[in-house]
Amino acid sequence: MSRNIAVIGSGYMGGGIAQVLALAGARVALADVSAEVAEKNYRRLIAESRDFVRDGLFPAGATQTLEKNLWAAASLAEAVANAEFIEEAVPEVLDVKRDTLAKISAAARPDAIIGSNTSTISIGDMAASVTNSGRFLGVHFSNPSPFIPGVEIIPHEGTDPATVSAARALVHESGKSTAVVKDVTGFVLNRLQYALFHEATQLVEDGTATAEDIDTLVRTTFGFRLPFFGPFAIADMAGLDVYDFCYKSLQTGFPERFATPTILSDLVSAGKLGIKTGSGFLDVPAERIPALIAYRNKAYVLMQKLIEDLGPAPIT
Questions:
Q1: pLDDT in tens, 30-87
Q2: Judging by DSSP bridges, how do beta strands 85-88 and 150-155 pair with one another?
Q3: How far apart are CA 116 and CA 124, in angstroms?
Q4: Which of 92, 84, 88 is CA-nearest to residue 76?
């Protein structure tokens, strides 16, 4: 990746994003509320890199790559002056983000793509602060960004399609995966994450299970599958008729909370039950099913071995 990039906000998230992009070969400027803060965080990122290399989390030579590619700018204006892509990673406060984006917009090249790392704030609500807002979109990395491979790409209604393509290409060059989602409250990642957390807290509050037991169940059952398969692939493999039946069972206790999704009912009514019929949410050809099942079984065995090798998380 031969690019000039700026990251505005050099804290934990911004610094991690800067590491990702700099390790991929980009020249990355860090800026913050002052030159001193940017320099302090630059030194932290270099020291952190040495620890990551020692622990086998970053490749050998990563620290030298960061020292070459990462630099602390004296100001926001200096950081963005020559950048073709700028990532805003300041605190999740709308007024702070709007003010920062206006400053970026005023100092950056008119063709520079501007991304926001917001996890919840509407991209459209911030777009008015950016001149030529067609170049603006959400580019949402997850914590810790050096080690989480997925990035949410969130265009607002006025984002130029070329901006989306360019942002995805840049993220892919850094070795990450992308998913493009609409600019709705919570986007996708947090709507799913918080839906699970909301149900989990209700189970604790009503005495169904303890927090410890719920965590155990999540990580050893359906959560165990999630590194390999998303919810639609899992449903297709289980059988959509099974899911339809389970919704009906759940409705005996929670009729509103677990109303059967219309999209599920429609597929079941059409006889599209998942891999057993060759079509469902995802269409898996019959000839590919044996390979899919073999992959699934091997993946789960290797995941269990990895967990055993790592040992239990040091939570308690």
A1: 999 999 999 999 999 999 999 999 999 999 999 999 999 999 999 999 999 999 999 9
A2: unpaired
A3: 11
A4: 88
User: What DSSP string runs through the chain?
Assistant: ---EEEEE--SHHHHHHHHHHHHTT-EEEEE-SSHHHHHHHHHHHHHHHHHHHHTTSS-TTHHHHHHHHEEE-SSHHHHHTT-SEEEE---S-HHHHHHHHHHHHHHS-TT-EEEE--SSS-HHHHHTTSSSGGGEEEEEE-SSTTT--EEEEEE-TT--HHHHHHHHHHHHHTT-EEEE--S-TTTTHHHHHHHHHHHHHHHHHTTSS-HHHHHHHHHHTHHHHTTT--HHHHHHHH-HHHHHHHHHHHHTT-TTTTPPPHHHHHHHHTT--BTTTTBSSS---GGGHHHHHHHHHHHHHHHHHHHHHH-S-TT-
Are residues 52 and 58 in contact, defined by beta-carbon separation less than 8 angstroms?
A: yes
Count of CB atoms situated within 10 Å of the CB of 110 = 8
Q: And the tokens for 171?
A: 């993220």
* pTM summary value: 0.92
Tell me the HSE value of 226 on the side-chain side, using a 13 A CA sphere.
10
- CA-based max dimension of the chain: 64
Taking the C-alpha atoms of residue 34 and residue 214, their distance in angstroms, rounded to an integer, is 44
To the nearest 10°, the Cα dihedral for 118, 123, 125, 129?
90
In single-letter form, the type of residue at position 108 comes to A
Amino acid at 314: P
Q: Residue 316: is its pLDDT beyond 90?
A: no
Strand partners, 136: 114
Give residue for tokens 């906000």.
9
Is residue 121 predicted with pLDDT exceeding 80? yes
